Amino acid sequence: MRFTHRYASLGTVFTLCIAFSAAAQVPLGGNFARDPKQPIDQSYTDRIHKYTTEPRFLSPLVEYLPASATVPTPEKVLGDVAGAPDMLPYAEDVYKYFRLLEKSSNRVKVVTIGQTEEGREMIAVAIADPELLKAQKENDARLAQLSDPRTIGLDDSKAQPLIDKSFPVYYITGTIHSTETGAPTALMEMAYRLAVDDSPYIKYIRSHMIVLITPVVEVDGRDRMVDLYKWHKAHPGETWPRLSYWGHYVAHDNNRDAMGMTLALTRNVLGAYLGWHAQVLHDLHESEPFLYDNTVGDGPYNAWIDPTLADEWAELGWNNVAQMQALGMPGVYTHGDFDTWSPGYLMFLAGMHNGISRLYETFGNGGADTEKRELTPEQYSRTWYRQNPPPATVVWSQRDNNNYEETGLLTTLSYFSHNTHHFLENYYIKSKRSVEKPTLEGPAAYVLPANSAETNRQLQLLKVLEAQHVEIQQLMAEVEVALPVVKKPDNKNAGEKEEKPAAKDDKATKKDDKPTTVKLPAGSYVIRLDQPYSRVADALLDKQYWAPDDPQKHPYDDTGWSYSQLFNVKVTRLTDAKFLQSKMAMVTDLDANAGKLTGNGSTYAIANTGQTSMLALLYQLKQSHFALAEKPFDAQGIHFNAGSLLITDADEPALVTSLHNLALDGVRLSATPTVASHPVTAPRVAFMHTWLGTQTEGWWRQAFDRAGIPFTYMSTQKIAAEADLNSKFDVIVFAPVGRASSTDIIDGLPMWTNPMPWQKTVLTPNLGAIDETADTRPGLGYEGLEKLKSFVSKGGLLITCEDTARFAIDTGLAPGVSVAPSADSRVVGSVLSSVFVAKASPMAYGYGDSLPVISADGMAFNISNTLGRGGGRMLMDPYAHRPTGRGGPDEIDIPQGRVNVEPETPPKQQPWEAKALNEEQTRNNPQVIPPSERPQVILRFDETKNLLLSGLLDKGAAIAEHAIVVDAHLGSGNVLLFAINPIYRGETIGSYNLVFNSILNHDHLNLPVANQTKNTHNEGGVDH
Ligand SMILES: [Zn+2]
C-alpha cells in the first residue's frame, strides 16, 4: 500500500461538497441549505436575527434553528437564545444543558474528564449518530492501533483496513481564556444543531465522525467571569473590576502550559484528546475581528512537527477561509502574525501528539454587551491574505461572535467529514514516522545518566514527560555508546571552504569536535524516540535556535525553552539507533526509588545536590531539629556539599515518608559531624501580591504549593495595614507583577472610578477565596513602602524579581543597584547561560559553577558603591584610548622637560562588579555606601560567546557578564533582586533553588565584605 499526500485544492473542496450534496442543482451557498421538510423554531430563529447586528454577520448555517419535539434548545437553560445580549451562563448551566441533550438525544454522550484546581468538573461531550457512538469502543481500539503503529508492526497493509473502517474524532475546546466569553453558548447551540438538524451536510458530519466538545476549559475562571459580568449588570454605569484571577494560579498563561503540564486543565484536555484518540484539537479564542483561523498563522513553524502537519494546517486553514468567503462573511483570514514556534499553547497538545492543532480567534466583547467597536488599522486594513477585511467601526454583539464561531466550525467539520479517510491516513503516517524517528531524522534517544546527585531534578523532568504520555525506560546494565559528532557550520568564508579538500575538512572536524564515547550507568533513564509521542520529548529536550535575522521580527512567545537546560540536568542526545538494542525496561513508577535512607546512627544528613524539596522538609518535620552545614564535609565515605542538612530528634518513620515523598536521599550518621553549621527553622513566608495582575506571581504561588512551602498570601494593601511585619514573617516574597511600574505598585489603580471590589457575595459567589478586598484600586502606598523598608532594615528578607526588582531599585530598597542599559541587545524569552560570582553564598548551595536561566528580555543589573549615578564617570577612560602625544597607539605619552611618572592605573572592573572608588571619590562623600551595605552579586550572565543556550540572542555584548541576581543590603536585612525569572511556568526547576535557598538561609545570606571592592581580574570585559 502506498500513501500519497493529497492536498485538496479549493476546486477539490467544492467538487467534494457538491458531489455529496443531495440536490442535483445546487443554488449558491446551497451546500449548507437546511432541510425544507424540517420545521424551524420560529421564535428562536427570530431572535437570532434580532441579535445579529448586520445580515452579513449571519450565514445559511446559523440563520435558523431547526425545531425538535423532544430535544430542548439552549433556551431551555439560558432563558434566551445562544449569544443573546446581557447573559452569560455559568459552567454548571452549560453542563446542565449538555446533560439535557444527552438525556433527550441518542446522538449525545457526556463524560467527565477531570477536576480543576478548585474542584470544579470538566466535561467532554461526544456527538455523532448512535451507530457511531455504539461502535465507539471498537473504533477507538482501531484508532489506538493507528496512533501506535508498533501494535501492527508498522505494517501499512494492516493499517489500511483500520483506516477504511474507522471514523475520526474532532475535538473542540472552548473558553480557556475566561475573558473570551462566547464559546460556551456557541458550542451549546452547535451541539443542538449537530444532534437535531436534518440538513444533508449536518447528517453527513454526524454519520462520518465524532465531534467532541469541551465547552469550558478554564472552569474556575469561567465562573468568576460570570460573577463579574453579573456585578457589571447590577451596577450600570460603573466601571467593573478586572478579572483579578482566572484560574486558581494563572490567567492568560493557562494557554502556555502545554509543555510543563502543570495545570489540571492541560492534563485533563490531553487525557481526553489521547483517550479518545482524536485527530484534531481545535481551541477557541476571541481577540481578533472577526475570525482569525490561525491554523496557518505565520513562521517560523515549530521545528519538531511532522511536515504533514504543516500541510494539514494549510489545507484546513485556507479551505476554511474560502468557505466563509463564499458565504460573504467579512474579516475571515488564516495567515497572520502568530508564529507557530513554541509548543506551549493548549492546541499544541495535538501538534506534538500526531494530531492537528488549530485555533480560532473570533471577536468577543469580553462579556455579553452589544458594543460599538473601533478597530485598529492593523485590524481593518486589506492585505494579501485578508481581501475582505472587517470595517473600521462596527456594532458587535455576542450573537455575531457566536455566528462566526459556529459557521467557522460547521464549515470546517463539513470539510473534515468529507475527507475522513485522508485525515486518518495522515494520522497513521504521522504516528508511524514518530515511531521511525530514530532511523529517519533522529535522534535515537535521550538519556539521563543515573546520578544520585541529579535524581531529584531528573524525576521532576521525567514527570513532565510522563504527563505528556511519553514512555520512559531504564537501562538494565551499563552501556558504552558513541556520542554524535557535532558538525559546526563554517561561517568564516564560504569560498575558502570550497577550496578545501574534503579530507582536510573531515580531519578538521574531528580535531575540533573529538567524537567520544560515553558510559551510561545501569539505571540511567532512557527516552527512546521509537515511540508514538517521540516528537514532544524531542521538542522539550532539544535546544532551540531562533536566527536574529529571521523574517519574523515579533516572536509571539518564548523563543527558547529547552527543558534539559532549564531543569539543570545532564541529558545526553544519542543519534546511533544501535543504542536502542541495549537492555532496558519500562519504568512504571517513577517514585519507586525516590528517597532512600541508608547508614546507621541517630543523626540524619541530606547531601545538598540542588534538590528543590529540602526546604519543604522543614515544614513537614516540625518536631525535628535542623542544622545547615556551612562548609563541605565527608562522613561514612560520602561527600556532603556546603548547605547539606543535618537532622536530629527525628521521628524516623515520619522522616522516611517525607524523604520518599520529597525524593530526598538521607544518610544516618553515627555522630554529628564537626563541620561549622547553624540551626535552621521553617521560615515564615509572606507572599505579597498586587491587585494589578496576579498571573506571573501565580506561577510562583503554584511552585510553592507544589514544593510544599507554606506561605501567607497577602495583597499590598494588607501588607500596608500590618502593624509589625517582622513579628510575623521572616521573608516577604514579591514575585513579578508583569510589566508594572513602581508607581503602579505604590498607587494601584486610578482612584477616579468607583470602588471595584473582589469579594464573595450573594451576587458574586465565586469571587474572593484566593484573596479578597472591598476595593481593588489602592496599591501599596507610601505607608506600605515604609513598612517594607522597616521590615528589611530590621533583618527581614525581601525577594524581588523583574518589575518588582525595578520597584526595589526605584524606591530605595536596593542601594547601589540599577538596571543595566540593554543597548541594542535582543532577547525574547531565551535560555541564557549564567555563572555564579558568589560561590560561597548560601544561594549557591547545591549548584555547580554555571546555570541556565530564562531571560524575558535581557534585563540585567549594574552595581555601584555609591548612591545615585554610579561611581563617578571618568571622561578619559584609561583603558579605552591613549591621549594624543608621542609614540604608537600602544605606547605611553611622555610629557617633556620633566622626569616622567606613570600614573597608577585604577583597578579595572568586570561588568558585574562595582567600580572601585579611589580616595578622591570617597572623601567627604555622603553618597558612598558603607562596605557592609554594598550590594553583593550572586549570579551574572556568561560571556558573550557562551551566553546563548536556546532561543534568540542578538548583540548580546551589552548584557553579557552583567549581574542578574544581586543581594542588596538595607539596615540589617536583605533585598534579593532577580533580573531573570527563576520560577517560570513550571519550566525552570533548575533555578528554583535560587529562591528556596535564600528563604532557607534568610538570616545567613551576607557574605564577608572583605576585598569586595578589590579587583583581581584584568582580562576581557567591557568597561562602562
Ligand atoms: Zn485567548
What is the mean predicted local confidence, pLDDT? 92
Spatial gap, N to C terminus: 68 Å
The biggest sheet, with number of strands, parallel, antiparallel or mixed sense and barrel status, is: 10 strands, mixed
Helix content: 25-40%
| Cofactors and ligands | zinc ion
Unreliable runs, pLDDT <50, ≥5 residues? 1-24, 492-511, 1011-1024
Work out the helix count. Answer: 31
Task: Describe this entry's structure for a reader.
This protein is α+β, with helices and mostly antiparallel strands and 1024 residues long. Helices cover 30% and strands 18% of the residues. It has 31 helices and 39 strands. Strands 26, 27, 28, 29, 32, 33, 35, 36, 38 and 39 form a ten-stranded mixed β-sheet that branches. Strands 1-2-4-3-5-8-6-7 form an eight-stranded mixed β-sheet. Strands 18-24-19-23-20-25 form a six-stranded mixed β-sheet, with no helix packed on it. Strand 6 (291-298), helix 12 (307-326) and strand 7 (332-339) form a beta-alpha-beta unit. Helix 7 runs antiparallel to helix 16, helix 9 crosses helix 15 (398-417) and helix 12 crosses helix 15. The model is unreliable at 1-24, 492-511 and 1011-1024 (pLDDT under 50). Bound molecules: zinc ion. Residues 177, 180, 285, 287 line the site of zinc ion (ZN).
